[in-house]
Specification:
107 residues, alpha+beta
Length: 107
Amino acid sequence: EVEIKDYNAVWGGERGGELLTNHLRPATVTIYADSHLPKLQVKYGLFKEKQGNVEILEKFWTAGELGNVAPPLVVYADLIATGDERNLETAQMVYERYLVELTKESA
């Protein structure tokens, strides 16, 4: 297991969906990181490859992480963006568990 929290990084995409739902086996891995990204890349030997299965993106939020997982809305968006049927199913589970309250009208 890659320890990304030491690098102020969190899981997104399929790995984030797996951690939030216990439902998905990731084919690709998305890591959101900030300024510690080069250290993370060196430690785990990550390098740029067009057909790779690890995606490293810059964090663009300041709050809402769940432990070592990106905010559920980010994970949801990552999963939806793939268009993959299994990811869409997992995205629906993330929505129902973490996001449905955001769409309810206030009483």
